[in-house]
Every structure is written in structure tokens, then in C-alpha cells.
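An instance follows:
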Amino acid sequence: MTSAGRWFHRPVDRPAARIRLVGLPYAGGGAAVFRTWTEALAPDVEPVWVRLPGRESRLRETPLSDWDALVGAFGRALMRHVPSPYVLFGHSMGGMLAYETATSALSRPPERVVISACRAPDVARALPAIHHLPGPEFAAALRDLGGAPEEVLASPGLFRLLEPALRADVRLAETWPAHPPRPVPVPVTAVWGDADHVAPRSAVRAWRHLASGGFRGHEVTGGHFFLSDPSAGVVDLVNRELGAAG
């Protein structure tokens, strides 16, 4: 498989697209997180879904649990395989990666960063560390904290399959930020769920303090995984933000 094929899933080919949406999933997730988005996006938007090491077709690869290594590898793939203009969208841990990437030394920065269900880096983490716990305790802690989709936690086989990626991603989230917070040089859109206790409104709205390129905030209905609920209207919101970015 090519480098582009490893990192990016393009469900439809839109070479004449006005803009590209690069979607970064939550902890343990892959490109399939965005499977319902493709048909709902505006026809002039090309969807580019990110597949990190250790999941889906990259299941045999070792997940990356070091921020510098992950941001470096992803940033190089992004610059090599995704033309401008593009927007980064990241949910939860994916929002952290979107931020770290946008504030790294990219030769072609994104038009906008949309950060969803993710606290700002200058907001202290309120949850206990769990990435070091044994398997059953790790799964139970994820359920208690709302840190993984229930369909993963409810299936022992699926959980065992995804545990290395989940554990690596949770470690990333628990050791973030890896560096002192930096301002985001492009416009930021922050999205939070009205019932999200993992990344509540105040923690997500705090992105406005780092958004040197401009800030917009939006509240949607749902808990931490509102991304998976069509009634939350996230895709419609993203379409509007992409219209503003294009």
C-alpha cells in the first residue's frame, strides 16, 4: 500500500473540489468514524479521512504514543499527499492532533481548524490517568469516563483488537500538551456538546484564547461522542464552516 493509502482514505474522488476536509478521529478510531459524512458533505468538498497506525488496514503497525513522532509523521504525509486548500477537523484526541499539526512547521497551513469535543491545551486535565491500567480495568475506566464508544467496550473481541490503539491514544491524550501552548495561526472553530462531561463547554470555549487567526464557537446536542449522532447536526455545521473557509 502506498504512503497516501496508509494515511488517508478518500471515499470519493473529487479532483475539482473547492476544498478538502481532513478528518481526524477520536481515540482508537479510524477512517470509518466518518463513514456517514461522505454523502452529506457539499459536492465541492473532497473528504479525506485519516487512518493512523494501528487501526483498520494499518492494524499490524505499532500505534504511535509520542506526540513529536506522531505529529512529524502525519505532517509529512499531509504535506505530501493532500493539496491545498484544506481544513483540519479533529474530534477529541483528533482535535489535539489537529492543533499540534496546525501549530507545527507546515509548509502549507490549513485554511481553518475545526476542533470538536476537545479541551484547550491551557485547560488542566480533570480526569485521572488510566492508560497504564490492566486490560479489564482499562476498559472499565474508559466506560466510566465516557472515553470510548460503547459498541467497542461492549464487545470483548473488538476491544482486544483495538486495545493497543486505544491505549496509545489515551496515553497521548493524558500527556498532552507535549509543549507549552502555542497560538493557532489560522481561524479556529470549536464545537462542544451540551451534555459532554469529558470536554465541557468552558474547556472547549477556552480555545478562543489561542485563536490568533479568529474564533467561532458552536454548541450541539449530545455527549462526548455527538460526532456519531446525526441529530447533532455536526456535518451541516462543518459544511457551513467549509463555506466560510473556501
